[in-house]
Amino acid sequence: MSTRTARRRPAPAARRRPSRGPSRRTVLRRRLVAILVLVGVTAFVVTVWFTPALGVREVEVAGVVDLTEAQVREVAAIDEGTPLVQLDTRAVADRVHRLPRVAGVTVERVLPSTVRLTVDEREPVAVVKAADGAHLVDATGLDYAVVASPPDGVPELTAQPNAVAAAVSVLTAVPESLRREVSLVRAGSPADIRLTLSEGREVRWGSPEDTPRKAAVLDVLLTRNGTVFDVSSPELPTVSDGPE
């Protein structure tokens, strides 16, 4: 006698109530919040970009020595009220850098309304005496300013135009202890550089090549008696008592 297995029908799924969306009040509240956020962002952008609320009210100048703050501000040409975010800092730096005494400048925005200019002035490493005054020369060999009298402690430079850079490179590369003794640098050519030291001593340096080695050799030679110290060939340095 065959038996049939009764198949159970699955119980009908419980009826789900249709999900209800957010209420009208919730939708309106969300829309209102979105509108307020958009209005706030727009107002902030307009305030920052197009109004003087966050505009320039003060230009600070730091680092000046021989220049005046007024000179830097004048050439920087930053209009009061210019929105800080619209300020072209590169253009401002380029304008300030046109001042011959300026070696470099940093332009910073300082909220809420200040622009800070930090100036790096050139420093003289040599002076060229001329009829119109003392010409200051920096470490790059640039003649950047004329003053009535040479500053103390800066050696005089007499050099042919094509030898100025070579002479300055030697002067800036020698040890500070030696540089302090140099009163005159002469350069008839880039390969004929001579230094006049205290007590009338002369150093025949030659070209700028092997400057560190020449400085080390000269340090030893200066312990000997003599007035002319030739390190133009550091392998064969000489000391003598007078010009040859």
UniProtKB/TrEMBL annotation:
Protein name according to UniProt: Cell division protein FtsQ
Occurrences of domain POTRA (ranges): 54-122
The entry's keywords: Cell cycle, Cell division, Cell membrane, Membrane, Transmembrane, Transmembrane helix
Cell division as UniProt keyword: yes
Family matches, as PANTHER family: CELL DIVISION PROTEIN DIVIB, CELL DIVISION PROTEIN FTSQ
GO biological process: one example: cell division
KW Transmembrane helix (keyword) present: yes
Annotated spans, Disordered: 1-23
Places the protein is found: Membrane
Pfam family, one: POTRA_1
